[in-house]
Amino acid sequence: MNRNNRANRKYIDRLGKVEFFSGCSQRELRAIVSFCTPIDVRAGRVLTEQGAHGRECFVVMQGHAVVERNGVIVGHIVDGSIIGEIALLGDGVRTATVTAATDMTLLVLSRAEFGAIRDLGIATAAWQCLDGIVAERLALLERLSTVAGDTSAPQRMAQASAR
Question: What is the value of pTM for the model shown?
């Protein structure tokens, strides 16, 4: 087994332990990993910036990140989380800023790769799980925005996700 295959096996094994992908077959996990680009990022790197256009999403293989909305910490990202999916499913606008709190290993999916996996019907159960994750996150954004007096972003995202 060459080095690239060993690396892919490592990501396939880890991806299968991620809640979002836990219902996927080995064949589906191999297909998903074939679309992903693994990267390592250093602590302090901004992964997504609120209001910016989202071109990719990330699956956290290892590490921890902080989620901020309007400069206020609203959450934490840990191993097995997905980051940036709302922008890819919706109107393309990032709903929060996510910054690596530790060094991280991520699998990156571009908008085209993300769409191709979905369009090919790979990992149907994972997409249903993702719909639930997005709904939870949009509900949280709605609550946070209502407290802050800004309801436009979650409403736009909910409308875009419903399309």
Answer: 0.75
